[in-house]
Every structure is written in C-alpha cells, then in structure tokens.
Amino acid sequence: MAGIPPKPWPTGEAELLEPLVRRVLAPNPSPYTYTGTQTYVVGANEDVAVIDPGPNDPAHIDATMAAVGEAKIAAIMCTHTHRDHSPAAAPLAAKTGAPIVGCAPLVLKTDLPRADEAFDTTYAPDRVLEDGEQMRGTGWTLTAVATPGHTSNHLCFALEESGALFTGDHVMGWSTSVVIPPDGNMGDYMASLEKLQAREDIVYHAAHGAAITKPKQLVRGMIGHRRQRENQILRLMREKPRAVSAFIPAMYKGLDERLIGAAEMSVTAHLLDLEKRGMATLDEDVWRTS
C-alpha cells in the first residue's frame, strides 16, 4: 500500500487523460480512499457518461458539472455502492435529469464490525447493467464487466473506443482492494481478477490512484500477492491454530494502526474461502487447517 503523496492534489480539477476521458478528484482523502475518489467524465461535446459520481459533496458535484460543461449527461454510472462512490448520483440526477445506470442496489444488513466505507443505502438505479450490456453515447460505448469480490455488485466499465477499463475499486492504482465479508468474497474476487487477466484492455482508470498502463502485469502481480497471502495463512495455521487477530503481526509488518481492522477482515475473507474449499476450520473463534 503506497503512502499518500504530498499536496497539492488536483482536487476539483478536470484533468484530460485521453480524448474521451476527463477525471475529477473528490475532496475525500483517507487511508481507504488515497487522495480521494476519482470521478470520470466519458465523452466529448454532445453527451457524456459520469462514472462513479462520488460522495454527496456540493463542491465535488459542482466540479463534476464544470467538467461536463455544455454536454448532456446521458448516464450516471456507478461501479458499486460504497459511500465514497455512489451518493452523488441522486443529487446529480436531480440537477440534470440523467438516468442512474450501472451496478445493482445493495443494502447489507450485518452487525459485523466494518473497516471499509459503509454502503450507500440511497442508491436507486434506473437501469441495472448485466455483464456484457452496454451504454452508448455520441462517439463512446461503455460495456459492463461484472467483477464481484470487493462487493457482490461490483462492475467495471470498458470504453470500447480506446481500450480503457474503469475498474472502480476492483483494481486500484495505489493499493490492493479490501475484501470484507460477508458481502466481499475472496473466491469471487480471485475469479474476477482472472477474468480481467484474460482481457486485452490497454489502460485501467481506477477510482483511486494513478492510471494503470501495464494492466496485465499488475493483475498478474495481484493474483500472486493473494496466493502468497493464502499460503502465509496456511503456514501460520500449521504452526498453531489461532484467532484472526493473531495472524496480523506475522503477515503485515509495520501496518498503519488505522488499517488493522481492514487487514483482519481481509484475512477473514481468505479464511472463509479456505473453509469453503475444505482447507480450514473455525472452532470457537480459532482457525485451524482441516
């Protein structure tokens, strides 16, 4: 996980990344969002799509509208419904009359402790995109790529005209994605990484961090990293059965204390996946190999 770079950051500025893509950084930096959530405006002068409108922050909504300019918003598209991604969809739709299109709604009911951004319960899409379905505008086509794992409703969007893929939180430009049960699922996440590895996208535009210009190389490394974590967990369980918290000091050296909860949930996701595969067993809050 990379450290947050020193300021100034381009918060609120419309940055042109490629002819059909502009990026606007929201003012919500944190240990989980890096310098903030990045909203993308796809299209040119006639009509555009807004991907991951971000938090319901008036300044960010105004900055997004400024980036759109005189164009019509044909669709407000959300990769998933964490609170830093989709809450601006409703006020932006109210301002413009644009439909909300993309991932399915999700309200997670759980009493488990959470370390990631909470889910957005206000999200109400006008159209849910299934894997392979498209949204079209003048000179642009966005195809939904289902990538469950970080959340069960996560989608990426492929810009067919340029070979770019908007990866939300599934693949980020600064850190591996946090997978938090019960909605986050490590088995699904790994399968989704394999799915992206088989694609031929040229560049990834993530919701957090820089553009990823060697996507296959990065995804291959992410798959290897997760397999390494799984092997660490199996080795530690073979040494002795242990509670989730006991894995963290051995697996995450020098971890920011603010991220301990996230690390515990990620280890839990691995353990639940190992349990499903018959390789681990939970007994009175202690995990052991099967």
Give the secondary structure arrangement, pairings included.
Elements: E1 14-18, E2 21-25, E3 38-43, E4 47-51, H1 58-68, E5 72-78, H2 89-96, E6 100-102, E7 127-128, E8 134-137, E9 140-146, E10 155-159, E11 164-168, H3 186-197, E12 203-206, H4 215-239, H5 244-251, H6 260-276, E13 280-283, E14 286-289
Parallel strand pairs: 4-5, 5-6, 6-7, 11-12
Antiparallel strand pairs: 1-2, 2-3, 3-4, 8-9, 9-10, 10-11, 13-14
Helix pairs in contact: 3-4, 5-6
How would you sum up this structure in a few lines?
The protein is of the alpha/beta class. The protein has helices at 58-68, 89-96, 186-197, 215-239, 244-251, 260-276; strands spanning 14-18, 21-25, 38-43, 47-51, 72-78, 100-102, 127-128, 134-137, 140-146, 155-159, 164-168, 203-206, 280-283, 286-289.
Describe the overall structure:
It holds the Pfam family WHD_BLACT. This is MBL fold metallo-hydrolase. This protein has 290 residues and is of the alpha/beta class. Helices cover 28% and strands 23% of the residues. The chain contains six helices and 14 strands. The strands form three sheets. It has a seven-stranded mixed β-sheet. Strands 8-9-10-11-12 form a five-stranded mixed β-sheet, with no helix packed on it.
